[in-house]
Design brief:
Blueprint: H1 38-49, H2 61-65, H3 70-92
């Protein structure tokens, strides 16, 4: 397989001609002009479901945790341990 140039001025970026493999693109990402419009909504939903601790104020959680019932605390600890395990598996599988 030949190496693609970083920029291909002879490329064709028309939506109907775009291809991930073996296409003749300019090699520039056209994120505002997509072939599959349903993917835009899906991408936005995935971005809204992503969070990082620095963007989320959880200071009130400490006081709310004290008001949980024993059953709610057991559920909280179980869910938290499960999610921590999933994060560990994902981190260990990063090449």
């Amino acid at each position: 397989m030949p190496i693609s140039p970083i920029f291909n001025p002879a490329g064709d970026d028309a939506i109907e001609n775009r291809s991930i493999w073996f296409g003749n693109t300019t090699n520039l990402m056209q994120l505002n002009d997509v072939r599959y419009t349903w993917a835009v909504g899906l991408y936005q939903q995935m971005r809204e479901n992503f969070w990082i601790p620095q963007r989320l104020d959880i200071t009130q959680d400490v006081t709310e945790y004290g008001h949980l019932t024993d059953e709610e605390r057991a559920a909280y600890h179980g869910i938290l341990s499960y999610l921590t395990f999933l994060d560990s598996v994902q981190t260990c599988n990063i090449p």
